[in-house]
Amino acid sequence: MALIEKNATVDTAIGLSEANASDYIALLKPRVMSLVVFTAIVGMMAAPGHINPILGVIAILCIAVGAGASGALNMWYDSDIDAVMKRTANRPIPAGRITREEVLTFGLLLSAFSVVTLGLFVNLLSAFLLAFTIFFYAVVYTMWLKRSTPQNIVIGGAAGAFPPMIGWAAVTNSVGIESIVLFLIIFLWTPPHFWALSLFMSDDYEKAKIPMMPNVMGEASTKFQIFLYTLLVAPVAVLPWVMGFAGIVYGVFSIGAGALFLFYAWTVWRAPVGAPMIKPAKKMFAFSIFYLFSLYAVLLGEILVRKALFLAGA
């Protein structure tokens, strides 16, 4: 017992924590990482040409690790505001299970590993895009935009939109117009998705002094901008079909899903300010997750079927 207490005292003195594996996994933001990996896979599969399967797996793993690094760096910098928000108070740093220094080191090591590995084994363009994505999320969004402007989500949303472009670049060593469209779908989807969340989490953001749209511009303005951005993303989501790199199934689905997304945005916009708009905002937030995932899932399904038919014909 004395030896255990002595070791605990030494660990405290040198700044070590007692974090376990689940805490390190939480630092990676696994739910966000899963969406990043999924959209990157779609970008890779949609790209013309082919990539060695082993290199493809390496590319996806690097993108996943890079996304996790971004999440860890975000939690390192935002530990002060995470501590005062109900949604984030139990994260490893504010809960006292790990130190900020450990998280910073963890995030930087993962960042360097993912970028260098992608550059060495796949190509420099995809590595550059991954490095820029990590920098954009950790520095431009987390350290600057998040605490300084209600447009934080609009500009910062670019970080979450890059993965399909990175996947495309891993295969082609280029950035095609198709990958830019895949980027734009996520980029334009991000504001209505997060502003719907902010409508029913505004008290948390207020306590943390984060200038989210409802807290700065008011609920009425936020609801209108949610509808405006949904008006933008719905037709952009149809472009893969219009441009010919998605088929009729995707085209019909994207039109129908876009119309439903607009309906949810309309119900939020027309709901009275205050408590009555919380329920439609929650419904829209939930549907927005399904909307983006299903668009990419249908697109991926079509691509896989098309490739299977090609191989069968060959």
From TrEMBL:
<comment type="pathway">
    <text>Porphyrin-containing compound metabolism; heme O biosynthesis; heme O from protoheme: step 1/1.</text>
</comment>
<dbReference type="GO" id="GO:0008495">
    <property type="term" value="F:protoheme IX farnesyltransferase activity"/>
</dbReference>
<dbReference type="InterPro" id="IPR044878">
    <property type="entry name" value="UbiA_sf"/>
</dbReference>
<feature type="transmembrane region" description="Helical">
    <location>
        <begin position="284"/>
        <end position="305"/>
    </location>
</feature>
<comment type="similarity">
    <text>Belongs to the UbiA prenyltransferase family. Protoheme IX farnesyltransferase subfamily.</text>
</comment>
<dbReference type="InterPro" id="IPR006369">
    <property type="entry name" value="Protohaem_IX_farnesylTrfase"/>
</dbReference>
<feature type="transmembrane region" description="Helical">
    <location>
        <begin position="152"/>
        <end position="171"/>
    </location>
</feature>
<feature type="transmembrane region" description="Helical">
    <location>
        <begin position="103"/>
        <end position="121"/>
    </location>
</feature>
<comment type="function">
    <text>Converts heme B (protoheme IX) to heme O by substitution of the vinyl group on carbon 2 of heme B porphyrin ring with a hydroxyethyl farnesyl side group.</text>
</comment>
<keyword id="KW-0350">Heme biosynthesis</keyword>
<keyword id="KW-1133">Transmembrane helix</keyword>
<dbReference type="GO" id="GO:0048034">
    <property type="term" value="P:heme O biosynthetic process"/>
</dbReference>
<feature type="transmembrane region" description="Helical">
    <location>
        <begin position="32"/>
        <end position="51"/>
    </location>
</feature>
<keyword id="KW-1003">Cell membrane</keyword>
<dbReference type="InterPro" id="IPR000537">
    <property type="entry name" value="UbiA_prenyltransferase"/>
</dbReference>
<keyword id="KW-0472">Membrane</keyword>
<feature type="transmembrane region" description="Helical">
    <location>
        <begin position="222"/>
        <end position="242"/>
    </location>
</feature>
<keyword id="KW-0808">Transferase</keyword>
<dbReference type="GO" id="GO:0005886">
    <property type="term" value="C:plasma membrane"/>
</dbReference>
<feature type="transmembrane region" description="Helical">
    <location>
        <begin position="177"/>
        <end position="201"/>
    </location>
</feature>
<keyword id="KW-0812">Transmembrane</keyword>
<feature type="transmembrane region" description="Helical">
    <location>
        <begin position="248"/>
        <end position="272"/>
    </location>
</feature>
<feature type="transmembrane region" description="Helical">
    <location>
        <begin position="57"/>
        <end position="77"/>
    </location>
</feature>
<dbReference type="InterPro" id="IPR030470">
    <property type="entry name" value="UbiA_prenylTrfase_CS"/>
</dbReference>
<protein>
    <recommendedName>
        <fullName>Protoheme IX farnesyltransferase</fullName>
        <ecNumber>2.5.1.141</ecNumber>
    </recommendedName>
</protein>
<dbReference type="Pfam" id="PF01040">
    <property type="entry name" value="UbiA"/>
</dbReference>
